[in-house]
Amino acid sequence: MIYHSFKNGYTFLLSTLFVGAIAIAVTGTMLMMSWLTLRNGQILEQSGRAYEMAATCAEHGLLELFEDNVYIGNEDLAIGDGTCSILTVGGSGNESRTLCTEGVSGGTTRRLEIIIEKILPTIEIFAWQEVEMFSSCEY
User: Fold this and answer.
1) Does 137 map to a domain?
2) Which class for 50: exposed (0-12), middle (13-18), buried (19 or more C-beta within 10 A)?
3) Can you give the CATH number for the domain in which 127 is found?
4) Using alpha carbons only, what angle is made at residue 128 by residues 74 and 82, rounded to the nearest 5 degrees?
5) Which of 112, 100, 111, 99 shows the shortest CA–CA distance to 69?
6) Which residues sit opposite 78 in a β-bridge?
7) Per DSSP, what are the bridge partners of residue 83?
């Protein structure tokens, strides 16, 4: 009879350990998923800010080109908690110009490359695209 109650206690102890291990694994998994979700949200927010900064620099560069078609670029702007850069503007005169901008927020960088058909009397854009590496501009 004593042997039988010892066996019941042993089964209860193993069951408790097994359920506890599962609970710890589930809790750890949920904590890890929460942390990853938070980190992904921060990365997406920084990426959006970096794109907005690159677009802001692009608009600034287009305005400068419209006002003075000999504008050469090479300008850095600080906007809030990030920065954007206008690289050297390619081409010369009123037609076939290239404007490249780069926005940085946190550890995220986004780049825009704009190919301009003509500047005056109105700006005509041939292509406005986000690129991983610039093909028509120099760093």
Assistant:
1) no
2) buried
3) 3.30.1300
4) 50
5) 99
6) 83
7) 78, 104
Rounded CA gap, 117 and 122, in Å? 10
> What are the mean pLDDT values of the chain's consecutive 10-residue runs (139 residues total)?
61 89 93 90 92 95 93 91 92 92 94 95 94 81
Number of structural domains in the chain: 1
How many angstroms separate the CA atoms of 83 and 133, rounded? Answer: 18
Tell me, what DSSP letter sits at residue 120? Answer: S
Indicate the SS3 state at residue 49: helix
Residue 44 CA, distance from chain mean position: 6
Which pair of tokens denotes residue 54?
């690159």
pLDDT at residue 64 in the model: 95
**pLDDT at residue 65 in the model:** 94
Question: Is 100:112 a contact under the CB 8 Å cutoff?
Answer: yes
